[in-house]
Amino acid sequence: MAKTQKKKEKEPDITFFHDDLLHAPADGSEAFLKGWKCKKCGQLDFPKLTPCPNCWGSEFEMVPLSRTGTLYSCTDIYIGAPGMKTPYIFGYIDLPENLRIFAQLEGEVDTFKCNETVELTTGTIGINNDGLPITSYKFKKVSQQ
Ligand SMILES: [Zn+2]
């Protein structure tokens, strides 16, 4: 019997965020974005910029960032990038740490307003080349109790 040469299956693309961006505990406790503070000059950045754009330092300390921020601006996207199911929403979120974060917003289009408070969540931000969901950080409206 001829040995059948099984074609090696393609490795799946990365389906989750980069480890420098987000801490999402497996135990389901609250996730946070990772800020990176330069050990030489103290500048805080997200995402991590290396070397430090202020002093060229190369050592950083991880600082958990606030989970809530203020929506600075947002836009609904109806003609999306390949692999992105439309419509989706992008926004800039200002955190208390004086960082402006670019992220997808989770929720219905045409419902977000500038200056509203949003909070961190995780969810699908797109589909990779293998048809698998790419999970990463997003922001959503603060849940009403
Ligand atoms: Zn620095």
Automatic annotation (TrEMBL):
ChsH2 rubredoxin-like zinc ribbon domain residues: 35-61
InterPro entries in the record: ChsH2_C, ChsH2_Znr, NA-bd_OB-fold, Thioester_dehydratase-like
Pfam families the UniProt entry points to: OB_ChsH2_C, zf-ChsH2
Signal peptide range: none
Chain ranges of the ChsH2 C-terminal OB-fold domain: 63-119
Name of this chain's protein: Benzoylsuccinyl-CoA thiolase
Species in which this protein is naturally found: Desulfosarcina widdelii
